[in-house]
Known about the structure:
The structure holds two protein chains of two kinds. By secondary structure, chain A is mainly α. Chain A is 75% helix and 0% strand. In chain A, helix 4 packs across helix 5 and helix 6 crosses helix 7. By secondary structure, chain B is α/β, with parallel strands linked by helices. Helices cover 35% and strands 24% of the residues of chain B. Chain B has a six-stranded mixed sheet with strand order 6-7-8-3-9-10, sandwiched between helices. Classes of the chains: A mainly alpha, B alpha/beta. At the A-B interface, helix 6 of A face helix 12 of B.
Amino acid sequence: MSRRAGLIAGLALTAFFVGAAVIGQFWTPYDPGAMSIVDKLQAPNLRHWFGTDQLGRDVLSQLLAGAGTSVGVALLSVIIGAFVGVPLGLLAAARRGAVDELIMRGNDLIFAFPSLLLAILITAAFGPGAVNAVIAIGIFNIPVFARVARGGALQLWTRDFSLAARVAGKGELRISFEHVLPNMVGLLIVQGTIQFSLGVMAEAGLSYVGLGAQPPTASWGRMLNEAQTLTALSPTLALFPGLAVLLFVLGLNLLGDGLRRRQERNE
Amino acid sequence: MTAAAAAPLLQIDALSVSIGGAQIVKNLSLAVGAGEILGLVGASGSGKTMTALAIMQLLPANSTLTGEVRLRGELLTGKSAGELQSIRGRDVGIVFQEPMTALNPLMHIGDQVAETIRLHRSVSSSEAARAARETLELVGLPGGRGAPHLLPYELSGGERQRVAIAMAVVMGPPLLIADEPTTALDVGTQAHVLRLLKELAHSRNMGLILVTHDLAVVAQVTDRVALMHRGEIVEQGETGRLLRQLQHPYGRALLAAARSKPKRSAPRPAAALPVLVVRDIVQEYPRRRRALGHAPAPLRAVDGVSLTVHAGETVGLVGESGSGKSSLLRVILALEAARGGDVALLGEAFSVARGKRLRRLRRGIQAVFQDPYGSFDPRWSVERLIAEPYFLLDSPPDTPTRRRNVAGLLELVGLSASDARRHPHEFSGGQRQRIAIARALITEPAVIAFDEAVSALDVLVRAQILELLAGLSERLRLAYLFVSHDLNVVRSIADRLYVMQRGRIVEHGPTEAIFTSPQHAYTQALIAASPSLPDS
């Protein structure tokens, strides 16, 4: 039953943060960017539940707005990775031979490339920002999805129904989309959840080193960066964004793990 | 059987097993004497495997067991996990069906056998290694060939099963349980493994429980038979006598099915039109390059095979695994391009056809595959699955026509029209093969190729499917190319037979002629190795 508990906890945490992100787009207690020097560095209190930062901005409002950045960047990068990677993986599995080699060696190339270096390159070329973070993280999701899709597809290609479809005159690409892809949706959802959690981490990391979302866009990573120098003065300032990243990533991992177990049981 | 009467080696009393509330074994009592070979026979789902596992107390976690199992008078039921662990392997050995997964792929087979010894007895590693070598020799893997240092992937299926047997008998257990030990093996290999088990039981005075669905195997090897049906033993007795005078209707049905031969009218006149002509097919696959240097010569899977199937005729293609029959079938179905030769379907070149022409020709040949569980996309409805080959038509029929045709075919293969809306997982293995046959029929082909299409089915279901196929062939004047490793199946349905060995056809001719006077040594060996039932 503990497996089930993990799945439920993961689902609850994920729903909580995604819900917070959605709410943060429409309403926050204060304007997350509004500075008020007289209110700076307040400890948590009734007016500012999570306190204020060195410029007097409300931490809760920043966290809510930052959740939107996290979810947005992670989601878009998963979509980029899945929409490019999955067809590549399907193609590699369907064609095998030289096409397979080409795609998989291209994958290895991306895998081997340090992700931070690529993020710096993109930033150097296009300037820092959330959109460029999405592109950088998305590119690294491509080989992951390609590999998972190829593995799942190779296994499905050994099943007799793919032979039956070929006897029915269907080509490899048509079979890939009619028979292979629908039978690995579960696999891809699990991988998507895991990549989503890595995306949240990566966004926080890139923003922390200044390569991600730029002010006035709120971001957990940048909040951590700004709080870092003030840890002695105001320890709660780093605590809340840190906890937010931790719990969201934990929730997504529990969810991914729970879904994977459930799927294995069904097979 | 004086030993069995006095103090049976294994005594099971009123054993009942239920798993998750469903009763799998009901009030079963059974005895096995030393040196006795008992066949535990039944269809899949009859509870025979669960009975075997219950003896070892290896049941799944959510199961409950009542009754008593005694080994040499000692009560096994109710023993602690630790006590049972020392009994397993030492007092009771077990061999499972699948030799591919029973061994650790990364361990030398000698070490795997030795490991069993060292689990039960504190001996030095060199002593264990020596005992392991001796046991491997005993099962026919001599140390002179360096057998103990081989890894599982270097062995054939039959050799792996020998290793599994060595592991099971190395401690000299008084009782050995073999659960379908030869089901995954070819006939030739099956005969060797069965002979080995029989010799071991007799030379070591070891009790052997042979769990199987195959009555012919039982007839050949066992002293006594217990017939299981729906969790109960419905009949048991001395093998020869029991098979002659079965009382229980299920037993009779099983025996009749194993002997059955679908009724057919006289063989077609040879003047019938050839619908499928296969000429000089050669197929090769590249071998993996070892390190640097020249690429090794490709593996020649099919080496100049020619065969003909006439309208309305059933042609059998027999060969052991690795004989190239699957590769040949892929070429015949135009799923793979051959290195040489050609295939003509209804007088037109099929193997070189492309595009529209290929799709039109494909309507003339359809296929039924081996695995009734893998042949269908689990997400599709039966109607959509059966209608899939309509993709070959330039203008597929509209929805009402399609529905009507699918419904008609479902009834033709013995299912009901309302099954169209259901999904494959709702059907049994036999029903699924019926669905597969319906799918093969929808384009009204002239030939249907069957790739081991009844191998995964129980003997009763198999007989029903063969009956159905014989009827359809007659009514629709269909030709069949029936590929199988099982001589008995092919004998019961084929008009003519091709025997394939190492990529070549070594013999062909009318089925009965080949069975009564096989010419080629390989055919003779195959027929001799194939277990058969005594005539009634």
